[in-house]
Amino acid sequence: MLFTPVAVAVLAFVMCPGGSMAAAIHSRDGSAPAATYDFIIVGGGTAGLAFATRLGQKLPAAKILVLEAGPAPPANEPGISIPGLKGSTLFGPYDWKFLTTPQEKINGRVIGQSRGRVLGGSTALNFMVWDRAAKAEYDAWEDIGNHGWAWGTMLKYMLKVENYVKTSSSIVFGLNKGVGTGGPIQTTVDRIQPPQQLPFIPTMNNLGIPTNLESLNGNPMGAVYQPSNIRASNYTRSWAPEYLWIAGSNIHIVTDATVQKVNLQRTSKGQQATGVTLQDGTVYTATKEVVLSAGTFQSPQILEATGIGQTALLTSAGIKPILNLPGVGENLQDHIYVSVAYRLKPGFTSFDSLTTNATYAAEQMALYQSGQPSAFDYNGSNFAFLNWNQILGTDAFMLRLAALAALPTSPVDQTKLSFLTNPAIKAGIPQVEVLFADGYTGTKGYPAAGSPAYGNQYITLLGILQHSFSKGSVHIDPSSPSAPSPPIIDPNYLAKDYDSQAMIQIVKYLRKIAKTAPLKNILVGEYEPGPAVLTDAQILSYVKDTVSTLWHPIGTCAMLPKDKNGVVDCNLKVYGTTNLRVVDASIIPVQISAHIQTAVYGIAERAAELISNGYS
Ligand SMILES: Cc1cc2nc3c(=O)[nH]c(=O)nc-3n(C[C@H](O)[C@H](O)[C@H](O)COP(=O)(O)OP(=O)(O)OC[C@H]3O[C@@H](n4cnc5c(N)ncnc54)[C@H](O)[C@@H]3O)c2cc1C
């Protein structure tokens, strides 16, 4: 082994208080602790670390290697650990910094698609919202052809992930059901509820939206308080590397190791994964399985670089086709949002002051560092999950557009249509999420320094479409197919009228919220888009100029029957292979009405049980 004991010890300390973790983390310097493992996991992100840890616990004699392209970050990296600095790491050193192709229906705009390139993956960058969708949405995964993946199973595994901590100040938040304890990821509801956030839930109530205090238990509908993946003991981010704190010594992690492809060998039972090849040509051998946990954009990239995907595409990239699997990289779905921003009346101090008022920011940082409540604790905890009837009074208009948008041959589209039409479930499935954001988080920008409006305080209401009918793709770049080159990401935003009309209706509804008491009583006026944007045409134009991603891409290695463009079966095995699996967000077949990390962790927990059962 070429890793010095010092390097190993330093990295272990970085990742674990006291450095007592059993799993060994090695920075790649040309070699690895061994060349052969039982299991090789590609990607030390959300799913990869959760899966590796649980697999190692269930199979203590198995040797497990995790290969992560990014580095292990230093201890307490502020941009990662301090909730109030969320977002500051985007397009920084821990980000793959992906971009979409120019999106035709939004004026050719290119949208940033941040993804974690660091041990911990996208949980290092994410915005820490911790929630779940409606029961019927997980049940749909089973109904679409995936035996064993309904709500009951998913909830069981999602609960293993977390340790929800109720603080003395959180009695009002409910959350007595549908939350887990004893898991490695710490969750809690913000201890800070800023004065400007307090009117949000009463305002939703005045619009006829009831408060729901148990929104993580299969019914997210209503105005809700939700937790964040934040540790209540010191208000730092709790994220995927914390799984390693409970991992055994049979887990080896190698960082700075970019996998280019899986090595396959043909057998009578199908293609067998024998290991992986790194960017520098190093080969690691797997005696049992190779598992891709490289995320929605890069698990399909690795499959294609291996020769698994659409034959014509592979040929055009000079890759020898091994398995023709047309679904690889298709079925890309993403949550999109639009926002409206309002100036607060004098007397309110919003999150904006952390960036515009150095004295205030320093005071808040001093409070944070001394363990006192501080704006740097805050992540946001007020949301509303709504259906079209609640937003529009009738869903007839949206149903007509949905019927036009849904392809009869697409089980994914038909599932989304059933979320809107099936009388047994439609009232309980959110189509829109409203997110209350303290401070300005819009698109045109905070007023410039030196301008009279600099120093103004804002709130922003974000409206997120939960089930869009536009679907896109991610594929290798034929001129440079393998990682670390970026894949070609085309989400096809607003390709369907349903989606663009939905965004118009969402803007109108966000404005309605802002015009309703008690929220309206604390607002001076609309900052963005502003009063000049009035007609549907003007709102659509605003949407096209500003709509963006909530960073929830899924579906590109979909768990679906093979004849329905599936990539993996319900055991997460790639069709046509004997021992190659995918375990990450890419296997989620249909969008859910939630921020997706709880589902991704839950998939990893379930995968560890499924796969270990085959070896114990
Ligand atoms: C900015 C942002 C905000 C978000 N906010 C929220 C939120 O508030 N709440 C929520 O629930 N969800 C949120 N999400 C989404 C959520 O974090 C992700 O969906 C989830 O973490 C994805 O997990 P994953 O395991 O699929 O991929 P990742 O966690 O991204 O892990 C993939 C890993 O594979 C590695 N990798 C990739 N290619 C290779 C290769 N060739 N060789 C070796 N390693 C490789 C990557 O470096 C990465 O570490 C957010 C995401 C982002 C980016």
UniProtKB/TrEMBL annotation:
GO terms for biological process, alphabetical: secondary metabolite biosynthetic process
Cofactor(s) recorded in Swiss-Prot or TrEMBL: FAD
Catalytic site: H552 (proton donor), H595 (proton acceptor)
InterPro entries associated with the record: FAD/NAD-bd_sf, GMC_OxRdtase, GMC_OxRdtase_N, GMC_OxRtase_C
Record keywords, A-Z: FAD, Flavoprotein, Signal
GO molecular function: flavin adenine dinucleotide binding; oxidoreductase activity, acting on CH-OH group of donors
Pfam families recorded: GMC_oxred_C, GMC_oxred_N
Superkingdom in the source lineage: Eukaryota
Positions contributing to FAD binding: V118, N126, F127, M128, V129, V259, W551, H552
All copies of domain Glucose-methanol-choline oxidoreductase N-terminal, residue ranges: 116-139
Signal sequence interval, chain numbering: 1-22
Matching PROSITE patterns: GMC_OXRED_1 (PS00623)
Family the UniProt entry places it in: Belongs to the GMC oxidoreductase family.
PANTHER family: DEHYDROGENASE XPTC-RELATED (PTHR11552:SF115), GLUCOSE-METHANOL-CHOLINE GMC OXIDOREDUCTASE (PTHR11552)
Official protein name in the record: Glucose-methanol-choline oxidoreductase N-terminal domain-containing protein
Organism in which the protein naturally occurs: Drechslerella dactyloides (Nematode-trapping fungus)
